[in-house]
């Protein structure tokens, strides 16, 4: 009997690129979806498709048993994911694992959280077997701040608030456990790191592994927005400001045990992330933005 095949959307992204090998380790077949031809992915069948192109999606969905749904940050991300979920159901896909966001609610002041809640609601409504993963702020979002970190600082409008930020490798491994296991239908898992940390603590952890003095600066929201202007579109800048206001209010500090419950081992700590990626922050990289995936 052939192993079930999982279609991984966003297979070359931060989470998807870690999910592909995690699925292979668990004995699942993987169809890795990418928008660009010529990007072969080790251990996976690569398919070229775009979440905005239903024809290419029909081919990508043909014959798969389950899907992992994650989309690039876009103003129409909710509509795109809703359309994909409908196509997956029509194609006879048996399971869908949806990557959402910590604290997604329909009445949130944060647009990203409202959008994710809209997709969650639709997936529940269409009756497709599904599991929702709600990760908190990505520690890998710091990669986008590497240029200023290499100069000895980074900034955001968050003050001393703490966030139970998560390593994206733990998101991928949690998703793999859900896709390879049973008993997860209709469940929602909030994914966090093992503790809530402040950005000052992040700065200290990066200082320790690089041997350099790295500081965190609490910057006003308007200055933060100005730093991003011209790098990101206005809707994304405004969304990030809303995200950080959410963090600053202390609304993302709860710690959940889902990573350990699903994977059988503790979530990676900030110190693990810093140690494993010290080289990223040791010298100024080329062409990095100040935020990267900070929308999470």
TrEMBL record:
<dbReference type="InterPro" id="IPR036291">
    <property type="entry name" value="NAD(P)-bd_dom_sf"/>
</dbReference>
<dbReference type="InterPro" id="IPR051604">
    <property type="entry name" value="Ergot_Alk_Oxidoreductase"/>
</dbReference>
<protein>
    <submittedName>
        <fullName>SDR family oxidoreductase</fullName>
    </submittedName>
</protein>
<feature type="domain" description="NmrA-like">
    <location>
        <begin position="5"/>
        <end position="232"/>
    </location>
</feature>
<dbReference type="InterPro" id="IPR008030">
    <property type="entry name" value="NmrA-like"/>
</dbReference>
<dbReference type="Pfam" id="PF05368">
    <property type="entry name" value="NmrA"/>
</dbReference>
């Amino acid at each position: 009997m052939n192993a079930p095949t999982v279609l991984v959307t966003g297979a070359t992204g931060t989470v998807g690129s870690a999910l592909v090998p995690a699925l292979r380790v668990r004995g699942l077949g993987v169809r890795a979806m990418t928008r660009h031809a010529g990007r072969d992915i080790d251990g996976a069948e690569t398919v070229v498709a775009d979440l905005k192109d239903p024809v290419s999606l029909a081919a990508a969905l043909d014959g798969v048993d389950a899907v992992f749904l994650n989309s690039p940050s876009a103003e129409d991300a909710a509509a795109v994911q809703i359309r994909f979920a409908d196509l997956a159901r029509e194609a006879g896909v048996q399971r869908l694992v949806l990557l959402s966001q910590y604290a997604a609610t329909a009445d949130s002041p944060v647009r990203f959280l409202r959008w994710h809640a809209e997709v969650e609601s639709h997936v529940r409504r269409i009756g497709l077997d599904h599991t929702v993963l709600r990760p908190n702020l990505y520690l890998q979002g710091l990669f986008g701040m590497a240029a200023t970190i290499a100069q000895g600082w980074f900034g955001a409008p968050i003050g001393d608030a703490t966030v139970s930020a998560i390593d994206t490798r733990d998101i991928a491994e949690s998703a793999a456990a859900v896709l390879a296991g049973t008993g997860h239908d209709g469940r929602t898992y909030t994914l966090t790191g093992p503790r809530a940390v402040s950005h000052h603590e992040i700065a200290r952890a990066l200082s320790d592994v690089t041997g350099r003095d790295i500081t965190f600066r609490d910057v006003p929201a308007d200055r933060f927005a100005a730093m991003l202007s011209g790098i990101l579109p206005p809707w994304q800048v405004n969304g990030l400001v809303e995200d950080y206001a959410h963090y600053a209010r202390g609304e993302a500090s709860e710690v959940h045990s889902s990573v350990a419950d699903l994977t059988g081992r503790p979530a990676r700590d900030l110190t693990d992330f810093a140690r494993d990626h010290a080289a990223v922050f040791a010298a100024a990289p080329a062409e990095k933005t100040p935020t990267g995936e900070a929308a999470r």
